[in-house]
Each structure stands twice: as C-alpha cells, then as structure tokens.
Specification:
Layout (H helix, E strand, L loop, with lengths): L1 E5 L3 H10 L4 E3 L2 H7 L3 H12 L4 E5 L5 H15 L3 E6 L2 H12 L4 E6 L2 H9 L4 E4 L1 H6 L4 H14 L5 E4 L5 H10 L3 E4 L1 H6 L4 H18 L10
Parallel strand pairs: 1-2, 1-8, 2-3, 3-4, 4-5, 5-6, 6-7, 7-8
Helix pairs in contact: 1-3, 4-5, 6-8
The structure holds SN-glycerol-3-phosphate (G3P).
Length: 226
C-alpha cells in the first residue's frame, strides 16, 4: 500500500518526508483553502519539494465536464506529468474522466461514498478511486467494508483502477486497509505521526540506552565504547 500525505502545508509535508517513506501528496480545494496561499503557489512549492517523480493529486473545482477537462489540463501543464487530476465522481465528473483518460491524463476519482460510484469511475478510466473512509463511517456505514468491497469489485472485474483511500480519523482504519492490500492511502500528518507514537516503544528504547550506558558510561554508543 502506497502512503501519501493529505495536506498542503509545506512545513508539515517536509517534516513527514524527513522521517517516513512517502509516495506523494494529495490535496482538495478545502485543504488548499486552509493553507491560505494562492493555489498554484502552494502546489508548485509542494511539487518542487517532492520532486517530479512523486504523485501529486490536485482537484478540479468546476461543475461541468467541459470546464473540468480544461482545469485538469491546466493543472497538469502547471504541475507536471505525475500530477493526478482529482475529479468528483458525479455525472459531469464521469464524463470528464472518460475524455481525460482517453487523452492519457492520470485521474483520481474522488468523493466516493459507494461501491457503485467506484465501479463507474473505473469504467470511465480512472487510475485511482478515493473512498472517504471516515466520512462513510459518519453516515453509519462501515467505511472499511465499503473500501474492501471496492477493492474486490476492481479485482473481480479485472479493472486496473487502484484504491486511494482517504478521510481517515485514526491509525486502525489505515492499518485495516494496509492488511487488505489496497493500492494507496492518503493520511493527514498528525495521524501519520500517531502511527508510532506509543509510550511502550519509547520506553523500550530508553531501557536499551540506560543498560548500555550502565556498562560503558553516559553518552557512550557503539561509536565510542572501546
Ligand atoms: O480529499 C478527501 C479527504 O481529504 C477528505 O478527508 O478528513 O476532510 O474527511 P476529510
């Protein structure tokens, strides 16, 4: 399962990249708005930092297929070829996906709440389908189950579309999809940091240090213990 950052704040992105192996960054209009700067300023800064090989997912805002197609092309022109055009999975979005995928653009079908939406997006040529795990949970349906069902629909029908699961509230949701082997998950920085924020892990490591220093002296390591 690929792991992406669901945020547009460059400082947070840099911090996560420093410690963890990350495959790219996803954004949506709300995430970009939260960052406060102009959209292309934010996105170009992210692209420059993550490099041209990494995945960057950027959402269109228009409501008609014709405008979504124009927006998608502009997004890729500005941000490079490993940029995925995120398109909401509504009828106009599906129409835009069909056209853009035919022209070779990379597509992420977003705002997915149901398996049938994901199936339609896959048929329209989307590379990724993004179910909103936690938002589905909040509707009283199990977001993990919906995502697994989508994964099975793709596999059982020989559809090449991958899952890019989004909208997580906790590590367990991410872990369950990792166990199931979905294509990718995009996760907010604070949840990624929480993956291994565990006092048992820290105290185990502290005991190793204390034991070693007890033998060799304070501050000693395998570099200078002779
Ligand atoms: O892009 C979709 C995803 O970021 C939504 O996440 O946390 O707003 O439900 P959230």
């Amino acid at each position: 399962m690929k792991l992406l950052i669901d945020d547009a704040n460059i400082e947070k992105i840099k911090k996560i990249y420093e410690y963890y192996a990350i495959d790219g960054v996803t954004t949506n209009p709300s995430i970009i708005a939260k960052n406060g700067k102009k959209p292309y300023e934010t996105l170009k800064e992210i692209r420059e930092f993550i490099g041209k090989e990494a995945e960057l997912h950027v959402q269109v805002v228009s409501s008609t297929a014709e405008e979504m197609i124009k927006e998608g092309k502009k997004i890729v022109e500005e941000l490079g070829e490993n940029t995925y055009v995120k398109i909401p999975t509504v009828p106009e979005g599906l129409k835009a996906m069909k056209q853009l995928s035919k022209e070779g653009y990379k597509i992420t079908a977003t705002a997915i709440y149901t398996p049938i939406q994901a199936y339609l997006a896959a048929k329209a040529g989307a590379d990724y389908a993004a179910p909103y795990v936690n938002r589905i949970d909040n509707l009283g349906t199990n977001g993990i189950e919906v995502t697994r069902k989508i994964h099975d629909i793709f596999e059982n029908n020989g559809l090449k579309t991958q899952i890019l699961a989004a909208s997580f509230k906790n590590s367990l949701q991410v872990l369950e999809l990792c166990e199931y082997g979905v294509g990718a998950s995009t996760v907010a920085p604070d949840i990624i940091e929480g993956f291994i924020n565990n006092p048992n892990i820290s105290s185990a490591v502290e005991v190793f240090t204390e034991d070693f220093e007890g033998l060799c002296g304070k501050g000693k390591t395998m570099l200078n213990c002779d």
